[in-house]
């Protein structure tokens, strides 16, 4: 209908099942990101496609991603998720709290609940990283910008489209950025922790 039938080939299915093309590709563009970037496990497929189908020196977009963490003070959200179990229609169900704490929650976090600057805990270069790079631990310090009771750590990701481009673009899922369907990922603390500004 648009006259591109000789320029565009459509393959429907998993990239791992794609037949070998006649040639490799100059650019791979993929929306593979899950909650907190890595949940849903689609990065494996992107790395597979890169290694099998991208020409040497080709570009992949996004070309790099970062994972960031910051602390929040949101007593209302804490009550909604955790203290709720103290009285469920007249029944004490406090045993449920420990299971709630174990779960990550996808939430649109209000930017004003932040109580420190975010810190990047991982950067992934999609042009070179391996699947094993997604399994990591990180030690970090957060410096409080105000005194309050920290109720959760919040994780989010940024994706960068900036390799060899004159017009660089960042897709951010930060609480300060425009809302996306990824929102942010909230890791509730078992009990709120009182903190002091500057510590």
TrEMBL record:
<feature type="domain" description="Protein arginine N-methyltransferase">
    <location>
        <begin position="64"/>
        <end position="198"/>
    </location>
</feature>
<dbReference type="InterPro" id="IPR025799">
    <property type="entry name" value="Arg_MeTrfase"/>
</dbReference>
<keyword id="KW-0949">S-adenosyl-L-methionine</keyword>
<dbReference type="InterPro" id="IPR029063">
    <property type="entry name" value="SAM-dependent_MTases_sf"/>
</dbReference>
<dbReference type="GO" id="GO:0016274">
    <property type="term" value="F:protein-arginine N-methyltransferase activity"/>
</dbReference>
<keyword id="KW-0489">Methyltransferase</keyword>
<dbReference type="GO" id="GO:0032259">
    <property type="term" value="P:methylation"/>
</dbReference>
<dbReference type="InterPro" id="IPR055135">
    <property type="entry name" value="PRMT_dom"/>
</dbReference>
<dbReference type="GO" id="GO:0042054">
    <property type="term" value="F:histone methyltransferase activity"/>
</dbReference>
<dbReference type="GO" id="GO:0005634">
    <property type="term" value="C:nucleus"/>
</dbReference>
<keyword id="KW-0808">Transferase</keyword>
<dbReference type="Pfam" id="PF22528">
    <property type="entry name" value="PRMT_C"/>
</dbReference>
<protein>
    <submittedName>
        <fullName>Protein arginine N-methyltransferase 3</fullName>
    </submittedName>
</protein>
């Amino acid at each position: 209908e648009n006259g591109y039938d000789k320029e565009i080939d459509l393959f429907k299915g998993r990239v791992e099942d794609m037949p070998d093309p006649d040639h490799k590709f100059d650019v791979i563009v993929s929306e593979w990101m899950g909650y907190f970037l890595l949940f849903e496990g689609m990065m494996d497929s992107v790395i597979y496609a890169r290694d099998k189908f991208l020409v040497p020196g080709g570009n992949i977009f996004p070309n790099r991603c970062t994972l960031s963490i910051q602390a929040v003070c949101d007593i209302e959200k804490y009550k909604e998720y955790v203290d709720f179990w103290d009285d469920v229609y007249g029944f004490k169900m406090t045993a449920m709290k420990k299971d709630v704490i174990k779960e990550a929650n996808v939430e649109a976090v209000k930017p004003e609940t932040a109580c420190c600057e975010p810190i990047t805990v991982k950067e992934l270069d999609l042009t070179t990283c391996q699947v094993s790079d997604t399994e990591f631990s990180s030690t970090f310090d957060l410096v409080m910008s105000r005194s309050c009771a920290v109720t959760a750590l919040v994780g989010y990701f940024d994706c960068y489209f900036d390799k060899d481009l004159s017009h660089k673009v960042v897709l951010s899922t930060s609480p300060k950025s425009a809302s996306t369907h990824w929102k942010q990922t909230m890791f509730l603390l078992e009990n709120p922790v009182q903190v002091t500004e500057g510590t």
